[in-house]
Design a protein that fits this description.
mainly beta
Length: 112
């Protein structure tokens, strides 16, 4: 009698967050601008990312995320919060197994 084979794990979904900091140019240039335009003698404002499930349980918390962040997560629906200084935005996103979900956020130049 053949032995049952283990089921392969479902491929994770990927939440790809891209923060844009105003102005033309590549994401790398915009990240440099964010850091360069920070007030003198201070660190640039940190980009924060928080991912909660719909029951309010925190799954991911990044206090200083990169302008391009890829988070592998199980398929499901999440509350995704992204912030830069006092500007906070929250989105509800549904991720499908094996597929990327992209979130691009534009922060105006005067905000950072």
């Amino acid at each position: 009698m053949p032995r049952p084979q283990p089921r392969p794990a479902a491929a994770p979904a990927h939440l790809i967050i891209r923060a844009e900091f105003g102005g033309p140019g590549s994401p790398r240039l915009r990240e440099w601008l964010r850091r360069a335009l920070a007030p003198r003698g201070r660190r640039p404002l940190p980009l924060t990312v928080r991912v909660d499930d719909l029951q309010g349980r925190n799954l991911v918390m990044l206090a200083d995320a990169d302008a391009w962040t890829d988070l592998p997560l199980p398929a499901g629906t999440y509350q995704v919060g992204v912030g830069l200084g006092s500007v906070q935005r929250v989105y509800t996103m549904t991720l499908q197994a094996g597929l990327p979900a992209r979130l691009t956020i534009q922060f105006a130049g005067s905000r950072y």
